[in-house]
Design a protein that fits this description.
The complex is a heterodimer. Chain A is mostly helical. Chain A has one domain (18-140). Chain A has 9 helices and no strands. Chain B has a 15-stranded mixed sheet that branches. The longest helix of chain B is centred in the last third of the chain and has 66 residues, at 498-563. Classes of the chains: A mainly alpha, B alpha+beta. Chain A: InterPro entries: CHP03546, DUF2062. Chain A: It comes from Aliidiomarina sanyensis.
Chain lengths: 172, 589
């Protein structure tokens, strides 16, 4: 975990594209908030592995949002049930029910649909917000941050030595 | 593009996915085995074992070997086991979680078979019925067959006391009769009264003075007669009472030995209450086992389907739920056709099933039907079961089953082995028929089991077991009325049988035969006592009767004498005519 956090800080402090980290946060959110053993998460994993996004950021976002999901599941259940019981969408749901692929995606499961729709709606906001935060961090926060006593204390810890070791390995 | 794609990650993804697919393909059988064992154990409430599971991909189907379903109420037994089950399944339905089996074949189904080791029961399993412990009831019966000596000790033999009482009565009566007899007037005096009366009545007074004198003689005679007649009448009363008492007592005495013996015999009758449940103890476990076969549909499949239905509809905010959009209302679990071969009495019979599901509302309300119709074999002449059941949201679990079984040759089998008593059914022929119905999850029905050509054996150390052993071998036919009542998954079974009556009668007969020698001796003794007293008092009774009759005659004679009044005496006719003429002249008439 310490290694992973160190790698995230390295990515934040290095020249890794902010978009690569922001996309990792988005994909991690998808995987964390929606039920893990869902078919769409196979695609999320595919994107996370196949594209050059920051995998550490992805994993940390996944862990963070998985914890958050335990609190949000009743809301997702309510959202999913509301969508699935909306009369206007009934035709769509009935049509999808006869499609094995749609059934494999468990579209008719209240929490799966509710969390997925939430992620889809929240993803653009979260993507741009993440990107903006990373940029801000690099331009304004990082210098001041390094001057903080707490940061200096942290730099004297095992965590920071790990961070430096990784930085050294990468030769950056 | 080179900057966007992370080739090692892409390759790793495909390696992992393809690797997983290969693993699933290779280990589909063990995975299926584990999944089924877990799911079926939850549905059953106790351990379910499957020795081997195979997946056939084209056409898609599964094959299971050596299936054992533990009975949660008796973990040492399998409530159901089968050597092989083969199912043809619609693949894409299975992919989306809908189990649609077009054809299912299950071989060598057996129930109530002992497991190699007891199966584990889930901690959350709750039995719906207190198991009926037929064998515990043997101790509850407290069967006690008394010995003849015990019976005699508590028997109330009344003849000796009666003899004593009657002897005292007789003596008292004799004293009274003799005392009264001593007061009787002598016969000669009675004769003298008659002679005197004859003289008075035959006299012809010629003058009124003579008539007056005659009447005075009559009054004097009647005064004498009255005094003696009172004594005679007293004797008649005493002797009549003595004859009545003697006659009644002698009659009671003659009947006393027979009544005493009848009472002893009554005590030798076996208490019917204590044996009224014996047939249940002997045949209860066996009938329960037979009923497992007879009600296989309700006993095994029904509860599992009902449990599966309960588990299916359990919404939770934290785990979500699947919402059904199946407008064609297709069931999520359906076995269209099933052939289940049942291993019974070393023979295999096949039952045909249709529409096994718990969602009968989704198949047009059609029930699950089953039929087993076997023609004559070495073991039976006819075996017929048919029935149906359905689970409905409106009416719950409902159904019915009929059965008709003819000429089943039951092989040797144990009935009871408990508390030093063992019973075996060596052979018997069984006929049975009946019907049960289920409404709103409760079963209610009754059937008749007719046993003939019965050969039973019972062994044991207890005295009652030894006596029962003798009589049970004499039973060669009996009926058992079976009634079922309770939740369909765990119906309570009650047995009423005329076997209990037969055993009661046979035990009583056996006891009486054992007692016959003793009873003959008692009868002889009582008869001798009665004979002794009757031989003494019978002549006395005759004597008293004779004396009473004589006294009655004397009393009648004296009554006749007293009936003659003074007015009955009159003047002679010539004198009367003369007196009448004289009177007429005087009055001028």
């Amino acid at each position: 975990m310490l290694t992973m956090l160190a790698r995230l800080l390295k990515a934040l402090n290095a020249e890794t594209s902010p978009w690569a980290i922001a996309w990792a946060f988005v994909l991690g959110m998808f995987m964390g908030l929606t039920p893990l053993w869902s078919l769409h998460n196979l695609f999320i994993l595919f994107f996370a592995l196949a594209f050059r996004i920051n995998f550490s950021a992805f994993l940390l976002a996944f862990v963070f949002f998985s914890g958050l999901a335990y609190l949000l599941d009743p809301i997702f259940d309510y959202l999913g049930e509301s969508l699935l019981t909306t009369g206007a969408l009934e035709g769509l749901w009935v049509a999808l029910y006869e499609n094995p692929l749609a059934r494999l995606f468990q579209y008719n499961h209240t929490i799966t649909l509710g969390s997925f729709v939430f992620c889809v709606l929240f993803a653009p906001i979260w993507l741009f917000a993440s990107h903006r935060l990373i940029v801000l961090y690099r331009h304004r926060v990082m210098a001041r941050f390094n001057q903080l006593k707490i940061v200096q204390i942290v730099k004297s810890t095992k965590f920071f030595s790990t961070y430096q070791r990784i930085s050294g390995l990468r030769g950056s | 593009m080179k900057n966007v794609i992370r080739w090692p990650g892409l390759i790793l993804f495909f390696v992992v996915v393809i690797g997983l697919a290969v693993l699933i393909r290779v280990f589909a059988g063990p995975l299926l085995k584990g999944g089924l064992e877990y799911g079926l154990t939850r549905a059953n409430g106790a351990e379910v074992n499957i020795a081997r599971a195979q997946v056939h991909w084209n056409p898609f189907g599964i094959e299971l070997s050596e299936i054992q379903v533990t009975d949660p109420d008796q973990p040492e037994l399998n409530r159901f086991q089968a050597s092989r089950a083969q199912a043809q399944i619609r693949f894409w339905d299975a992919v989306i979680g809908r189990i649609h089996i077009t054809e299912l074949n299950v071989r060598d189904v057996a129930m109530g078979v002992e497991r190699a080791r007891p199966g584990r029961v889930r901690a959350d399993y709750q039995s719906e019925r207190e198991p009926m412990d037929w064998r515990q009831m043997l101790a509850d019966l407290e069967i006690d067959i008394p010995s003849v000596d015990q019976v005699l000790a508590r028997s109330d033999i009344r003849t000796p006391a009666l003899v004593e009482r009657i002897e005292a009565d007789f003596t008292a009566q004799r004293t009274q009769v003799e005392q009264a007899r001593e007061q009787l007037p002598p016969r000669e005096r009675i004769e003298a009264y008659r002679t005197r009366m004859q003289e008075i009545t035959e006299a012809r007074p010629r003058t009124p003075q003579e008539l007056l004198e005659l009447r005075q003689r009559l009054e004097a005679l009647k005064t004498d007669v009255r005094a003696d007649r009172e004594l005679v009448r007293q004797f008649v009363d005493v002797s009549e009472e003595a004859v009545r008492v003697l006659r009644t007592d002698l009659e009671a005495l003659r009947e006393a030995p027979a009544q005493d013996l009848a009472r002893i015999r009554q005590l030798l009758s076996f208490d019917q209450e204590s044996i009224s449940e014996l047939s249940g103890i002997l045949f209860g476990p066996r009938v329960e086992q037979w009923s497992r076969y007879a009600f296989m549909a309700f006993d095994v499949i029904g509860p599992m389907l009902a449990r599966a239905e309960e588990q299916e509809t359990r919404p939770s905010r934290w785990v979500g739920r699947f919402i059904d959009f199946d407008r064609e209302q297709r069931p999520t679990f359906l076995i269209e056709q099933a052939g289940i071969s049942i291993h019974f009495l070393d023979t295999t019979v096949t039952s045909d099933w249709q529409n096994i599901t718990w969602q009968h509302d989704r198949i047009g309300g059609n029930p699950t039907t089953f039929i087993l119709n076997s023609t004559a074999s070495d073991w039976w002449s006819e075996l017929y079961f048919d029935g149906e059941f359905r689970l409905s949201e409106l009416r719950g679990f409902s159904g019915r089953q009929d059965w008709r079984v003819r000429g089943v040759n039951l092989p040797e089998q144990g009935l009871l082995d408990q508390q030093g008593v063992s019973a075996r059914l060596l052979s018997a022929a069984m006929n049975s028929e009946g019907r049960v119905g289920i409404q709103e999850g409760r079963i209610d029905g009754r059937g008749l089991i007719r046993m003939s050509e019965v050969d039973m054996r019972l062994d044991g150390e207890a005295r009652w077991a030894q006596i029962l052993s003798d009589v049970i071998s004499q039973v060669n036919a009996f009926d058992m009325n079976v009634s079922l009542d309770g939740p369909f998954s765990q119906p309570g079974i009650r047995l009423r049988s005329d076997l209990d009556n037969q055993l009661q009668q046979l035990l009583t007969t056996a006891l009486r035969q054992e007692a016959d020698t003793h009873l003959a001796s008692i009868r002889s003794d009582l008869d001798a006592r009665v004979q002794s007293i009757t031989s003494t008092w019978e002549p006395r009774l005759q004597q008293f009767t004779g004396l009473r009759d004589q006294a009655r005659d004397q009393n009648a004679l004296l009554a006749d004498l007293l009936s003659i009044e003074a007015d009955d005496l009159s003047l002679g006719e010539q004198l009367e005519d003369r007196l009448r003429d004289s009177l007429r002249r005087r009055i001028g008439g």
